[in-house]
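thought: fold this chain, then report.
action: predict
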Amino acid sequence: MVRLELDQVVIRRMKEDDIEMVKALIKEGCEGTENRLILHILTRPLCLFILAVFSSILRCLVHSFILALAIPVFLLIVFLKITMPRSTGVLGSSRPYWDYVGSSYRGTQDETLYNPYSRISGKTPLTKKPRRRIGSNDGDKDVSQEKVTPEREQAAGQVWVADCEGEILGCIFRESETRAGIRRICRLVTGCWYRREGLGRQLVQSLEQRERETGARRVYAHVPYPSKVGEAFFRKLGYQQLGEGADEDNDEEMKLETPERGFLGHPLTKVFYRDL
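observation:
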């Protein structure tokens, strides 16, 4: 396997032509995460107690121990699959979906982030090669026909993709600015072939530098609750978990940031933050 050259990666805003590739990348990155979140909820003491009560009631009705045990669990899993926000599959978001069209960049020239690895190596990132459209499906929705107002674009936030010779290797999502000086990373995905290569670190650090230059003073990131890898990743980047700081009680702004919660109020994400 050829090692990824980070100095040749261009981090730019997502365009409409990139939407399907970004969706496929997210689907690959989210695989299994939702199931781990559901398992986390099912094994909480309160949830186990409620399942036991319903099983006892059903035992008197169906006269089958196996059915009385399986039916409540099955119904709860279906309920969680329907109601759980899919955005929590990566880094949590208060929005149940992402407006990819509103997030796409429409400038005439690519808006890019600074690549610190180019300065270290002294190389210039390669020019992005245009991708050919393999074909079109008449049944697909033509996103270019949708009307995108400034309000919709602002509410959708931004999506940045890591591009190397026309191939999208990873992406990072930043929510819309709802609080002055505060930014929120809600999704971070890298392709399975490019993990542990430093690409995720590059995406986060490049976005942090841009937000610092635009006046941001703090960045929040939400990590799925059972994800030890995501937790270790952000700790290595200097992030601290909300609730561990000694001076957090005196910071009113931090009280506005809470983890995403699911069934019975169980937290689905852990909140990490870093002051820029």
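thought: worth noting. Residues 87-94, 130-141 have pLDDT under 50 and may be disordered.
final: tokens above.
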